[in-house]
Amino acid sequence: MKKRAERLSLTFPGARSFYIIGDIAIITPKDVEVDYVKLAKKIIENHPRIKAVYLKKRVSGEYRTNELEFLYGEKKSDTIYKENGVKFYVNLLEVYVNPSLSRDRAKNLEMINNQKTILDAYTGYGAIALNIIHKMKVYVIAGDININGLYMLKKSLSLNKFKGMVDIVNYDANFLPFRDKAFEITFADNPTMVVYHKHELCRVSKDVVFYILTNSEEDARDKLGNTEWIKIKDYSKNLFIFKGLVRC
Q1: What's the average pLDDT block by block, 10 residues per block, for the chain (248 residues)?
Q2: End-to-end CA distance of the chain
C-alpha cells in the first residue's frame, strides 16, 4: 500500500500555504515562526516531482515580478505548467504567475460576445491570451513592457502549436501603439496600475475588463467606472482584487 503523505500542518503548524507551478513549489509566509528550509525539505519529501522550493517575498516593480528566496532543491526557476489545457513555459523570477486565478481566466471566455479583435494589455507570459485562443477563433494582440515575459509567451505558442492567432507587441502601456478603438474588448490585468492607464486603455478599446486592487466596490467604481464589480480574490485582510467590464 502506498504511504500517505504526512500533512505539513502537523509538523509545521500554520504553514500549510504553498502552491505548485510545474515542478516548483512556492511557500507563502504566515505570521508564525517556521523553519522554512525544513519545510521546503518536507515538501519535496511529500511531493517527489517538485524539484525546487522558494519562499515568496512580494510582487514588485514595473514588471510585476516575484521576489523569491531560494530554499531547497535544484536552483532552477523555469518550468512548464498546465492550466485549463494549455501549457505555459515560465521563469518565476521574471514574471508574475498566479495559478489561483486559472478559473477566472477560463471564465473570461464568457465575457467575449462575438468580439473578434482582442487586446491582452498586460499579458506577462500570456496567461489570458492563450486561455482565450485555446478555445476561440479570435485575433488577440498580447502586449507588455516585460520583454522576458513575451519571449516566454513565444515559447508557449510553440509548445501548444498555436499559429497565426496571436501577435506579440512590446510596449509601454502609457503610450499604446494602436489607433483609437482598435479593439472590441481589452483585458487589463494589472491591478495596481490600471488606474494610471485607464484613459489610454479606453482610447484604444470599446470595452475594457479591468482588474483592480482595492478595498471596496465603491472605490473601484469611483476610479474606473460604474459597472458591476466582482471580487475574485482576497489579497490581504483589507485589500481585494475586483474585476469589472467598463464600456468606454
Answers
A1: 44 66 88 80 90 84 76 96 96 92 94 93 97 92 97 96 89 97 97 95 98 96 96 88 96
A2: 60
Determine how many CB atoms are found less than 10 A away from the CB of residue 3.
5
Three-class secondary structure of residue 184 per DSSP = strand
- Cell (9 digits) for 10: 502537523
Assess contact for 54 and 125: CB atoms under 8 A.
Answer: no
Whether 97-247 and 8-76 are alike in CATH topology: the answer is no
Asked whether 95 and 124 are in contact (CB, 8 A), the reply is yes
CA distance 83 to 52: 20
- Report d(CA 141, CA 210) in Å as an integer: 17
SS3 per-residue string spanning 132-179: HHHHCCCEEEEEECCHHHHHHHHHHHHHHCCCCCEEEEECCCCCCCCC
CATH number of 97-247: 3.40.50.150
